[in-house]
Specification:
Blueprint (H helix, E strand, L loop, with lengths): L1 H6 L3 H17 L4 H21 L3 E4 L15 E5 L5 E2 L8 E2 L20
Length: 116
């Protein structure tokens, strides 16, 4: 235990390390223009990434059908764009506001061979 306590940094060592960090930070100067440009560039990147990550997911848990064939989407588990993906509980459709190409995936899990 004494050996571990001897290896522990003392107050002088910690203060010296903090002084070195402060000296290095004082050397770095960022102008308001540089910061503004960097923030604007990051904002553009964020907007592009967010547009690519627009997704939604609904679940059909009951196994019941509407009108003998339609799947009622009962639970919404994620919707990153609720202003675009319009969903009502137990409805068999999801409306999209924005026109475009959408990728749709389905996964069905059952104890016996299903007909989908």
């Amino acid at each position: 235990m004494c050996a571990l306590l001897d290896m522990k940094a003392n107050t002088e060592e910690v203060n010296k390390a903090l002084d070195e960090i402060h000296e290095e930070m004082d050397k770095v100067v960022v102008t308001k223009t540089e910061l503004s440009e960097a923030l604007q560039e990051q904002n553009s990147i964020n907007e592009a990434l967010c547009a690519e990550n627009c997704s939604a997911r609904w679940l059909w848990k009951s196994g019941d059908l509407q009108n003998g064939f339609a799947i009622p989407w009962e639970i919404q588990t994620i919707n990153t764009c609720p202003e675009n993906f319009l969903w009502d509980e137990d409805k068999s459709m999801v409306l999209t506001v924005a026109p475009g190409l959408y990728e749709i995936n389905f996964g069905f899990f059952s104890a016996k061979q299903p007909t989908v």
